[in-house]
Amino acid sequence: MSEIQNLQTYDPFADTGEEDAGQPQGYIHIRIQQRNGRKTLTTVQGLPSEYDQKKLLKAFKKEFACNGTLVQDEELGQIIQLQGDQRLKVQNFLGDNGIDRNIIKIHGF
Amino acid sequence: MSDIESEQNLAEVKSEELLFDPSLKKKKKKKKAVNFEDEIGDDENQVENGDKSAPAEDNEEEVKAEDDDISIFADMKKKKKKKKETADKEKPEEEAPEPSEFGDLPTKRKKKKKTDMLEFEKQLKEGEESENRQDDDIFVGEGEQDIKETKVEETWLNSDRDYTYQELLGRVFQILRQNNPELAGEKKRYTIVPPSVHREGNKKTIFANVADICKRMHRQPEHVIQFLFTELGTSGSIDGSQRLVIKGRFQQKQIENVLRRYIVEYVTCKTCKSPDTILTKENRIFFQQCESCGSTRSVSAIKSGFKAQTEKRRRQAAQ
Ligand SMILES: [Zn+2]
């Protein structure tokens, strides 16, 4: 079982529609949303699954001095939510820690 | 003899003091430097640093007081020192802007702040300039567009030198445009009117000229609006007079940035950079076809991705 597991990681015949958004080989999407008033929140979607999301969140919170939570989305997998506009900080953090900056996509204004 | 010797010794000692104990002199240098800097700072930040100039004056007073002290201690040496100072005068002024020289003087921080402020303002100005430069790449107001048509003067005719390649190229284009005025339009830079964005109430933003901008980009408003909404992580509607009402507060610059990204992603041809393209949909996939070079490429669908629930929805869900 464990020997052939890597065969399942890539299926060339899979539908390339919206479904692949959460897969690890795709982009890391960093988005911003406005809340009430001047408040915003940042969501990080598509982080590689080999990273411990909880630890990442902890590191984010400490590094950026903001609060945050982990959200489980049925289709998109685990999402990190942070308070405030942390997009650039997240990008730099991930880039500095060995993630290819080209797969990080920042959205929003 | 001994008297003379002792005198000589004394003189030597004095000069040595002057040479090897430059603390007095150095202090003066420092103070000079501080004053020098303060003057600059005050001149340039007169309005803003109204409150800051007061402590600077205090410093000057302190400096003068210390000067007096020094003169009390060093009245005898003063003449010699002055000579040396005039000799050294150029040096301290050159050294003046060095902040590291200022050791533990209380003025250090203030000075640093000032230089920081100056530097910050400089950077700010540069930033603004570069932003402005960015602005006129696509979003140029109507009537502001200028077709860059430099008159090519055939200067080589009056001299015995040969024409350069650039000059010849210019000549070709000039003749080409003269004989084919319809080609002149092609040279025009691709421009779009800036989005007209203003706030409605406290929570909504109105993007008044969406329809116009979509028309200029040759794109369906639905597609553009879908992109805007997913990028901004919000929603909205179109009102009676074809204006887009966006939930949330957005500035013109922010909308402009999103539009710029839309143009890069969905309008300009990746092959020839022409914005003259059409977007067609085949089997759920969008294809962009270039009108100038004929290339076709598929473009990524607009994915909304994850959308965090804002508090209102959470409350609704809880109920
Ligand atoms: Zn093309």
From TrEMBL, chain A:
<protein>
    <submittedName>
        <fullName>Eukaryotic translation initiation factor 1</fullName>
    </submittedName>
</protein>
<dbReference type="InterPro" id="IPR001950">
    <property type="entry name" value="SUI1"/>
</dbReference>
<dbReference type="InterPro" id="IPR005874">
    <property type="entry name" value="SUI1_euk"/>
</dbReference>
<dbReference type="InterPro" id="IPR036877">
    <property type="entry name" value="SUI1_dom_sf"/>
</dbReference>
<dbReference type="Pfam" id="PF01253">
    <property type="entry name" value="SUI1"/>
</dbReference>
<feature type="domain" description="SUI1">
    <location>
        <begin position="28"/>
        <end position="98"/>
    </location>
</feature>
<comment type="function">
    <text>Probably involved in translation.</text>
</comment>
<keyword id="KW-0648">Protein biosynthesis</keyword>
<keyword id="KW-0396">Initiation factor</keyword>
<dbReference type="GO" id="GO:0003743">
    <property type="term" value="F:translation initiation factor activity"/>
</dbReference>
<comment type="similarity">
    <text>Belongs to the SUI1 family.</text>
</comment>
<dbReference type="GO" id="GO:0003729">
    <property type="term" value="F:mRNA binding"/>
</dbReference>
<feature type="region of interest" description="Disordered">
    <location>
        <begin position="1"/>
        <end position="24"/>
    </location>
</feature>
From TrEMBL, chain B:
<dbReference type="InterPro" id="IPR016190">
    <property type="entry name" value="Transl_init_fac_IF2/IF5_Zn-bd"/>
</dbReference>
<feature type="region of interest" description="Disordered">
    <location>
        <begin position="28"/>
        <end position="115"/>
    </location>
</feature>
<dbReference type="GO" id="GO:0003729">
    <property type="term" value="F:mRNA binding"/>
</dbReference>
<feature type="compositionally biased region" description="Basic and acidic residues">
    <location>
        <begin position="85"/>
        <end position="94"/>
    </location>
</feature>
<protein>
    <submittedName>
        <fullName>Domain found in IF2B/IF5-domain-containing protein</fullName>
    </submittedName>
</protein>
<dbReference type="GO" id="GO:0003743">
    <property type="term" value="F:translation initiation factor activity"/>
</dbReference>
<keyword id="KW-0648">Protein biosynthesis</keyword>
<comment type="similarity">
    <text>Belongs to the eIF-2-beta/eIF-5 family.</text>
</comment>
<dbReference type="InterPro" id="IPR016189">
    <property type="entry name" value="Transl_init_fac_IF2/IF5_N"/>
</dbReference>
<feature type="domain" description="Translation initiation factor IF2/IF5">
    <location>
        <begin position="187"/>
        <end position="296"/>
    </location>
</feature>
<feature type="compositionally biased region" description="Acidic residues">
    <location>
        <begin position="36"/>
        <end position="46"/>
    </location>
</feature>
<dbReference type="Pfam" id="PF01873">
    <property type="entry name" value="eIF-5_eIF-2B"/>
</dbReference>
<keyword id="KW-0396">Initiation factor</keyword>
<dbReference type="GO" id="GO:0001731">
    <property type="term" value="P:formation of translation preinitiation complex"/>
</dbReference>
<dbReference type="InterPro" id="IPR002735">
    <property type="entry name" value="Transl_init_fac_IF2/IF5_dom"/>
</dbReference>
<feature type="compositionally biased region" description="Acidic residues">
    <location>
        <begin position="57"/>
        <end position="70"/>
    </location>
</feature>
<dbReference type="InterPro" id="IPR045196">
    <property type="entry name" value="IF2/IF5"/>
</dbReference>
<dbReference type="GO" id="GO:0031369">
    <property type="term" value="F:translation initiation factor binding"/>
</dbReference>
<dbReference type="GO" id="GO:0005850">
    <property type="term" value="C:eukaryotic translation initiation factor 2 complex"/>
</dbReference>
